[in-house]
Amino acid sequence: KKAPPASPRPLARSAAPRRSVAAMAPKDKKAAAEETSKGGSKKAAKVAKAVKGSVARKQRKVRTNVHFFRPKTLIKKRDPKYPRRSVESRERMDKYRIIQCPVTTES
Fold first, then answer.
1. How does DSSP classify residue 75?
2. pTM over the 0.85 mark
């Protein structure tokens, strides 16, 4: 297979919003050091615990049924945003139609 030919135009850069300099102002050194020491030691302890622990094999679930039932999920009620028919249906039978088409039991 041949590779597709390279496009003659370079791809346009994405129009990402530019961040203001004020929002990205550097923190003073003390505040930055405090922030990393607080969360950093907790993170390091967590990683060290994970590294020291042995890797446990994941237990495979034993299936005791030959049929697979799909999991029950959320079923929401219908909430239409607009009517599906533009005009409501008209009632065909009224007091005048009954006289035109009488039923034998009514006479």
1. -
2. no
What are the residue ranges of helices labelled H in 4-83?
29-52
CA contacts within 13 A on the Cβ side of 58: 2
Q: What is the pLDDT of residues 72-85, one digit of tens each?
A: 999 999 999 999 99
Q: Which position has the token pair 């302890």?
A: 45
Number of residues in the chain = 107
The number of C-alpha atoms within 13 Å of 103 and in the hemisphere containing its C-beta is 3
DSSP-assigned letter for residue 105: T
User: What are the two backbone dihedrals, phi and then psi, of residue 97, each rounded to the nearest 5 degrees?
Assistant: -65, -30
* Pairwise CA distance, residues 107 & 102, whole Å: 7
Q: Compute CA distances 89 → 82, 85, 86, 92, whole Å.
A: 16, 9, 10, 9
